[in-house]
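Researcher: Next sequence.
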Amino acid sequence: MRISDVDMRLLRVFVVIVDCGGLSAAESQLNIGRSSISVSLAELESRLGQVLCKRGRSGFKLTDAGKIVYQAAQDLFRHCDEFVSAIHELDEAPSGKLSIAAIDMLVFDPRWLLPEAFSQIRKVSEKIQFELRMCSPVDVELALLNGTAQVGIGVGRNELRGLTYENLFSENENLYCGANHQLRRQLEDNPEVALAQCDYVSRGYMRGFDTYGSRLQCRSTSVAFHEEAVLQLILSGEFVGFLPEHFAQLWCDSGHIFPVGGEEYAYTTPVVFITKSEDEHVRIVQEFKRTVLALLLDAW
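Model: Next structure:
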């Protein structure tokens, strides 16, 4: 079949539906009603001659054909973006879409200079369109590998093949408990015994490298995939968990959470600038990287 503008529009609607996990959830993203979304999906299925998903009371689920079409559509859009980027390379000023995936809660770190980087690049060229998504560390790397992001700001724990990492700075991670947690009353007697009786928030984004958590010998009874999720569980007063110091400080100052122990319950994590190896020489990526590194150098 030939791909027309109509097909491209329908495929984009389908991709958003899948990313949102259903037709209802896609309404706000697409800014159209559910009935219109349903019509578009039905039209795409008719044009392809395939049932792409099952929807109903049991929920939204892709068929095998739907999984193939979704991945093929992602590849198609990525190639289209690469074509547009190649054309924009001909412009005197950097232009095109720059997709960035970054770990959440870095905005609380005074060294976080991404807003300044946006401002400086806009002064160089107003032809750049920014696309920014906040992700867990794992999702940052996945976004780069699957082509949905050109630049990542993540953590340098376990470097993946095909990605290039460059250190930006390190963030301090401390162990915290809630204001009403029993641990606050027990730490002075025997910290190790007290901690062994605590429930710990395991971080799902550590990909099995949560060595600091495993050293505590706590009971890992909950899992969180974002820093904010870790904080929510700590605030309950039922769990202990690690948080970046800059993020936790606001709740420490208000007396809602407290650091546990000293250096033995703390460590540092490198924050890194990540690119896909094959995208390192894309002009817009080079410009953004140069700007971020220059801002950090000036700050230091």
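Model: The CA atoms of residues 13 and 40 lie 7 Å apart. The longest strand covers residues 163-178.
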